[in-house]
Input
Amino acid sequence: MADICKELRKDLKVLDGLRESCLSVLVKEGMESDAAKKAVREFDTLAEELRDATVFYRQPFNERLDDIERKMEDKKPLDRRECRLLYGVDWYPGRLKYEEDKRRKEIVEKWRSDEEKKQDLAIEFDTTPNRISVTEEEALSGNIRYHYDELYLKDTASAKGVTLPEEIGGHLLLAALISAEGLELPRKIGGGLVLSGLTSTQGITNWPIKIRHEIIVSQALPDNEKEELKKQYPDQVQYV
Output
């Protein structure tokens, strides 16, 4: 929670700076009237949303879950921030206490069908429900924007023909992978990444811009590949 509040405060500071810069440029260009007012209103709206989010994330996790479950019982729609919390978008595996994460998942399973999960997450990720996956089969079907929760591909030995989602909410397990030729990894992984079966990462066409947990690789990787991974993911690489 402290990490998220810190990020939000940082975003607010940046936003306030952009607001002043924008206003100065508009005034200098002689656009003090409608254009300036519109730009400032847009910045102020974003700033207010960030301030609301800071307050939201200060509230204890279980209290927020209580509020969300009451809304679900009353069949009231969840806002985007509540969806992010309920589906673990902001709370990846390993960040919550076990009991908190277990309860979060229990609420999802109790109150949401698979189709409802897709509808909720489609709003959050600005896409359509058919681009949200909740099963392994769906996740590998192609053109998936976001996969909810973990993705354990325990029997996948080759990357040939494998198309992964653009983003995964939890851990991505590819421990059985022995050939990475042509593998395109998700842009973001909300948990950890396991590639412990590879003796070389050559062939991976891109790496995630963000992995929120650890990346587990083989001790047998060449030294130059280990060094590259350390540079890209400082303090996240673990060897087995």
Remarks:
- The mean pLDDT is 85.
